[in-house]
Amino acid sequence: MRLHRLEVAAFGPYRKREIVDFDALGADGLFLLHGDTGAGKTTLLDAVAFALFGLVPGARGEVRRLRCAFAEPDEVTEVVLELSVQGQRMRLVRRPEYQRPKRRGDGTTKQNAKASLTWIGGVPEGYPAEGLIRIDEVSRTVEGLLGMSAPQFFQVVLLPQGEFARFLRAETDEREKLLEKLFGTKRFADVEAWFRDQRADKRRGLDQRRQEVREWVARFGQVAGEDAPEQDLAGWTAAVREKAEQAVAEAKSDEERARSDSDGAEKLLAERRTAAERVHRLRSAHRRLSLVEDQRDERRAWAAEIAGARRATTVLGAVTQAERWAVRFEEAVATERLRVRELVATGQADADAEVAELRRHAAKLREEGGALAGLVAEAEQQTRDRREIEALVDKAEEARADVLVLTEKLDGIPQRLEELRRELDAANAAAVQLDAARVRHAELEVAVDDAAGLPGAMRTVAETQERVRIATDEHQDAREHRLRLRELRLEGMAAELAAGLTDGQACPVCGAAEHPAPARPADGSVDREQEAEAERAERRAEHARSTAEAARHAAETTLAALRERLRGRTGEDLDEELRLAQRQLEDLERRARQRAKLSSEARAAEAEAKSLTDKLRAVEQIATAADARRRTLLDRVDERARRLDEARGEYPDVAARRAQLSRVVRALDALVEARTERVTAHQQLAQRREELQESLANAEFGTADEVRAAARPDETVARLEKRLSQAAAEEAAARAVLAEPELAGVSPDDDVDVESATTAVRAAREAAETAVARLRAADQRATDLETLAVQLSAAIDAIRPLEEEFAELDALTDVINGRGQNARRMSLRSYVLAARLEELALAATTRLQAMSQGRYSFVHSDRAGARGTKGGLALDVLDDYSGTVRPAKTLSGGESFLASLALALGLADVVAAETGGALLDTLFVDEGFGTLDAETLDVVMDILDGLRAGGRVVGLVSHVEELRQRIPTRLRVRKARTGSTLEVQM
């Protein structure tokens, strides 16, 4: 994999679009990302990671805030990366999800995450030519081409040698955590946890089964009424069951004896009850016969009463009919007299005429009234038409008054509408000019602020120029002081070497073991520490000079921008222009605000004119239509009045004449009906009286009153008949009982003792029930014990394989978690980490030997820790010079950096070989350079320079000034708002 070009916009601390050309930077194979702390060096690495995977490494990825806080609302947060993987060049574009201010109104709106992959040059086989735009497809394609996941990429490409430096000095527990972070052994930790969870589950299941066994034992003991022994549980249960069976046999024998006694007592009671029942029946029969004999006279009276009622029933209907027709005849006579008076009151007919004559006269009058029916309807219409004529006169007059009012209103509207339109045109023109006026006003406000800030900017430039001059002088002095000290140290180098001589040890210059005249330090000599302090002072002075120059450049840029924007205008001129612009803007805003009101008023005036015109036309039509209708009705009313006057005769109107005819017809019809009803009733009354006399003679009654006296309701007759039948049945039943053979020889005076037999039966039953209850209890207890014994035996048999299985799982879990029979006290995770550490140590040793010129090698040990602590993660260093193995924490600062860098590069080799990933042509080395002295830094730079072999590009990330001196600046990127600058060098 090789990076070609990176673009970031509104990303992290970078507000504007910044471009990093890796092809230009990597031309020599080595480049530097340099800047102060917080300048945004690591952000460029985050941008590369985000473009590839949509993620950023470390804790920064958990915050998920990638958008620049100073970006404008319309600026898009975006990362663009061009790279080549496996010979295929591609362009990745990603945008994160973020919230931006709404373009209209308050609040924010969410911008969704986006991603795209575009092929540059050829298209790989199996991929679409148009590229990819789905986020998940882009991520899967990148991982497939790179052959590694995001965490692996962060380990391999963004070398975290700072973590390896901590790793070298860490204890076992901390080293285990770092290895887990590097190698991601969570799945093995999950296996350990799974075994622990399984053991806990099995233990809970086994405890539950054990509790079940204890519960079965407790239930068995509760039924047996005994406490379970600690030993020989099976023998105890067998003995309890044998006792229960013996108790059942004894209870069964007692129950049989009690049942036999109860049966004998029951038999004696039944015999005595039978004898007592026969005596009772005999006594009852004699008592009933005595009662029947006492009612003999009363029963004869009941029979006579029933016979008279039955004879009266045959005549009672004829009596009722005769009386009903007598009443109807009287009512018909009264009705006829009333109808005669009503007819006489009309004064139009003869009430004494025959029925046929009365009917003919009614028919004639009915025909005459029918002829007048049509004229009655015309009379009613005549009244309605006259009322309508009056209403039409009022309606026409009201419409003509409305015409005058509407005409007056319409006369003033056109002029008012013209004025509103002129004002609306002026308001629209003001609205068009408003945006330009606001822009002009805003520009003048900014210009006024610039004019106010111009003196301060000039003072700032002067101050920064003075600080640059002072910093330059101090830097020159510090440099001269360092050079002078170096010269003095070189002059006194012999004394410095002599200070390290010891009798008996070889001189590093001449090799002699004796030192007769070692050199002595001269006055004013300089040692190594003084020279190093001078170098540090020079670097501090240089940094202060750079800072002052950057501040001067910023101040001069600000002053130039202010002067360019002011274009020679003074503050007084700008204040006057701002006041004029303010007045003009307020006037335009006032007129523009009236647009909606004027437009609404104009529309209302137009609508009012149209409405009034429509109303005027409508009322004019109403007046014309009312006059025409009135004239038509007047002609029709005059012609109809002549016909109605001829038809009414001597009556007030036609309706009155027709009403009189109708009254006479109704009176005639009523008299005919009443007279006919009287004749019919008289005929029926005579016939019913003849039938009554015949019925009285047949039933042997003289008058109707005798019939009414003998008549009885049906309920009374039925009740008397029931009494007679009951008395006869009582007598027959009593005589039948006395004739029964089984009562022969039984006297009503006999006395049978049933009470003593009942008491004996009750006592025998209680004894039998008690014996049955004891038998059932003993049998149930034996059954329960048998069932519980079977359940208890099954529970004991079921728990044995579970205990064996749990013992095996418990031992295996201890081994996997580094306890029990695990002699090395290594958990599964530690074992895997030890294997990975051993593989890493082999790969890193190759690097470390090359860096240390064959002196150092890594040595991995899986020995257990002290006092039984877990082991397997020991990592020491073999010093070839002394042939001894020593802890890695004893390495010096430079040696530790070399060892950590070797581990980081070894990890990259291991992960790349493991994943089968693409060849990594671009690496980034972050952290650690600030801890190196000058000599170690020389060694490291030589090693990093050697990493460029084979066309590999190595990017260094550091704020160390010495690296900046070694690699010339090619690109500067200014961070948003803070003014700090990131330099990209090669």
TrEMBL record:
Residues 512-555 are annotated as: Disordered. Belongs to the SMC family. SbcC subfamily. This is Nuclease SbcCD subunit C. It comes from Amycolatopsis pithecellobii. InterPro entries: P-loop_NTPase, Rad50/SbcC_AAA. SUPFAM superfamilies: P-loop containing nucleoside triphosphate hydrolases. Keywords: Coiled coil. One of its GO terms (molecular function) is ATP hydrolysis activity. It comes from the Bacteria.
